[in-house]
């Protein structure tokens, strides 16, 4: 065998180990997959608060609509464990409606805080506090209100407009 054949054979022999490029590509793929997994887990834990906030928004809009349609005030009662809707009782009304029309259960470990248009500070509802009553008049008005749901990892805040009971979008 000539020296030229030996040189060619050495050049085309498989090498042991990986090139730097192969290692970098592998690390990039692993980083992308692990980053996606972290985001997925973070979004899953925030899902309960998002769902509670969306259901509260729907409840507020339906309560405003019912107050206008039935031409009588309705109220949303907010406690640390439950949020429910009830029509305001009227003296001339014969039937006494005491059962809530709709309700939401606040998940265990979620704190509920409120910011009204009369105050500048958030106040957190305690388990022994009386329910906060948010009233919707038959003319379609309610107080502006911000509700904050928070657990150990996440915070979800929604602000409600006094005329529409819709979410106020903060444009920064």
Automatic annotation (TrEMBL):
Does the entry feature the keyword Transmembrane, yes or no? yes
Query: What keywords tag this UniProt record?
Result: Membrane, Transmembrane, Transmembrane helix
Which Pfam families does the entry mention?
N_methyl
Q: Which SUPFAM superfamilies match?
A: Pili subunits
Q: Which domain of life is it from?
A: Bacteria
TM helices/strands, residue ranges: 20-42
Q: Which NCBIfam families match?
A: IV_pilin_GFxxxE
Q: What is this protein called?
A: General secretion pathway GspH domain-containing protein
